[in-house]
From TrEMBL:
The keyword Magnesium is assigned to this record: yes
Annotated family: Belongs to the thiamine-phosphate synthase family.
Name of the protein this chain belongs to: Thiamine-phosphate synthase
Listed CDD domains: TMP_TenI
SUPFAM superfamilies noted in UniProt: Thiamin phosphate synthase
Classification of source organism: Bacteria, Pseudomonadati, Pseudomonadota, Alphaproteobacteria, Hyphomicrobiales
Length: 211
């Protein structure tokens, strides 16, 4: 498995990125300090995911930022992505690990302490914990857990966690205080007038508080 840095994790949204596209949004965000980029497009088929993913991989080449693919195992493998992220309803973690092999990073969304406690560290490399707040970028999200809930889930998770759900630069200190290794953001970067500047603001806050 590759080493990874969860501190500033951009989740791409095709609608928010429509102005300049997901590849350019990712390129600017990485220039601003994003450490990981997740390709998430629930409306795209595998072929479209592969096309976008290969363009993203090329754009991120040499930057040190890692590319994660949401849900689509076939696309992740075809792209040669650094990792795959799955939700509880997507597929079983053991099945996913069996398909992607031992070297690819595997992330898993968890929304409750029960789910966090059930994570197998032999299969899963990190958990995406949330939503901290309600967010319009994921209409089917579970009940928001707040920072107290975030801290409880992170304490229960046997692997490093990244917080997600309506997070912005002003939440960085609370995210790290809860024990997260980073925050995953969507609208705080994607769809902003200047994704690079927006990312730099978040990265600056992370530098102030990161252990």
């Amino acid at each position: 498995m590759k080493a990874f840095d969860l501190s500033l994790y951009l989740v791409l949204d095709p609608e928010l990125c429509a102005g300049i596209g997901m590849v350019e949004t990712a390129r600017l965000a990485v220039a601003g300090g994003a450490t990981m980029v997740q390709l998430r497009d629930k409306q795209a088929g595998t072929a479209a995911m592969i096309t976008t993913g290969r363009a993203l991989k090329q754009a991120l080449d040499g930057t040190g930022a890692l590319l994660i693919v949401n849900d689509d195992v076939e696309a992740a493998i075809a792209i040669g992505a650094d990792g795959l992220h799955i939700g509880q309803e997507d597929m079983d973690a053991r099945m996913a690990r069996g398909m992607i092999g031992p070297k690819m990073i595997l992330g898993l969304s968890v929304e409750t302490e029960t789910l966090a406690a059930a994570v197998d560290p032999d299969l899963v490399d990190y958990t995406g914990v949330g939503p901290v707040f309600a967010t319009p970028t994921k209409a089917d999200h579970k009940q928001p857990i707040g920072f107290d809930g975030l801290a409880r889930l992170i304490k229960t998770s046997p692997v490093p966690s990244v917080a997600i759900g309506g997070l912005k630069a002003e939440h960085v200190a609370q995210v790290f205080a809860a024990g997260a290794k980073g925050l995953a953001v969507v609208s705080a970067i994607a769809g902003t007038p200047d994704p690079e500047a927006a990312t730099r603001r978040i990265a600056a806050e992370i530098r102030k508080v990161r252990p």
